[in-house]
Every structure is written in structure tokens, then in C-alpha cells.
Fold this sequence. Notes:
Low-confidence stretches of chain B: none
Number of helices of chain B: 0
Structural class of chain A: mainly beta
Oligomer: heterodimer
Distance between the termini of chain A: 41 Å
Helix content of chain B: under 10%
Structural class of chain B: mainly beta
Strand content of chain A: over 45%
Radius of gyration of chain A: 14 Å
Number of strands of chain A: 12
Mean pLDDT of chain A: 91
Number of helices of chain A: 0
Shape of chain A: globular
Strand content of chain B: over 45%
Radius of gyration of chain B: 13 Å
Order of helices and strands of chain B: EEEEEEEEEEE
Largest sheet of chain B: 7 strands, mixed
Helix content of chain A: under 10%
Low-confidence stretches of chain A: none
Distance between the termini of chain B: 37 Å
Shape of chain B: globular
Amino acid sequence: AQSVTQLDSQVPVFEEAPVELRCNYSSSVSVYLFWYVQYPNQGLQLLLKYLSGSTLVKGINGFEAEFNKSQTSFHLRKPSVHISDTAEYFCAVRRGSLSGGYNKLIFGAGTRLAVHP
Amino acid sequence: GAVVSQHPSWVICKSGTSVKIECRSLDFQATTMFWYRQFPKQSLMLMATSNEGSKATYEQGVEKDKFLINHASLTLSTLTVTSAHPEDSSFYICSARMAGGYTEAFFGQGTRLTVV
Lengths: 117, 116
């Protein structure tokens, strides 16, 4: 079975500072990895995803993440955050499928990013 | 593209009544839809997976008679919370995906249910 651990429940940071949100996963099979953002009382928006290929993945809003297979990590980074980045961020994993079937998403507990002026 | 819309965005109902939440894929055909429940400051918990035209598959511990899911068309799935109680108050989120193994699921904006 797959599992996801988001190491920080809250990350406070000042505006224009860099930020890293940590995510580790556990799986005995290949996986696809995702980061989602959730603003208050809203659904989830996909920031970026890793399916295969280059381990550095660039997403929307200036975010990027690096897949590290040896460390089973998929940390999310942004070099300079804005007030508007304040939100809940979820890391998720989905078991890969050679047959093309769809396996369900497993979410981490979430990290609350609070950007202060 | 790939917009998923939930209705209503929030609803208040009396204990003992039933409430229906709709999830629509606006610009694509959703062969599979997922229903999640999210408690305050917690992650999403998958409740069930529904495929168009067939019965939903519920996750362990989710009462299928309590949470009725219907996926009658390729653009609409509904979740009905029957005989709602205050402990059913939560944020419910749906997601939908197109056919094809590597396509992603897109999320609705969520429905805040409060049972009084």
C-alpha cells in the first residue's frame, strides 16, 4: 500500500522569501506524484505532477518539485512567495499502472502555508 | 477546460432530512467520479468511486445506505446524505476524470454541509 507523509503541518514564511514544503512517500511499486493547493472553502487545484521523465517538475504559480527516488521524496519549492500563496497544500500519490488503469489518489495530511507581509 | 462544478456550494439542513449534492463535469465526459469528505484542518478521505452506469464502490467504513451515490450520466454524479445528523456536517468534494488510464482527475469546489 502507498502512504504519504507531509512533514510539516504549518509553514510560516515572510513574503518574497523562499519556501520548501516537504513530502515523503512510501510505496513498493512505481507511483505518480502530485501537489495540490486548496484555498479556504474551495476544492483542490493541481499545482504539478510527476509521472515519469525529468525529476524536476515545474508547475503553475512559480512552483516546482523534485522527485527523488532514493529518498522517496517529492518536495515542493518556490523561490519567492506572495501573500496570495497562503493556502493548504496537499501532496498525493497514485500507484502507477502499466495497463493504463486508474488507481485512487492517496493524500497527505496537508501543510498550511502562511505568508506574512 | 476540464471544469468540475459542484452544487450547492453550501447547504444547511435539519437533522433527519436528506440532502443531495451534485457534481457535474462541464466540458468533458467523466467516466469516473470520486467523492471525498474533508473534516476541518484535515486531509481528504475518499468515500467512494463511481463509474458511469454502474454501482459505486465504497471505501471501508463508509455506509453505502447513508451516502447514496448515483452516476447516471457521463456528466453528472450525485451524493445524497440520507437522514442527516450533525456528525455528517463536513466539507464534501468530488472529482471527475475522463476515460483513459493516464488522465487526471479534476476537483469540484466543494460543498459545505451543516446539519442542525
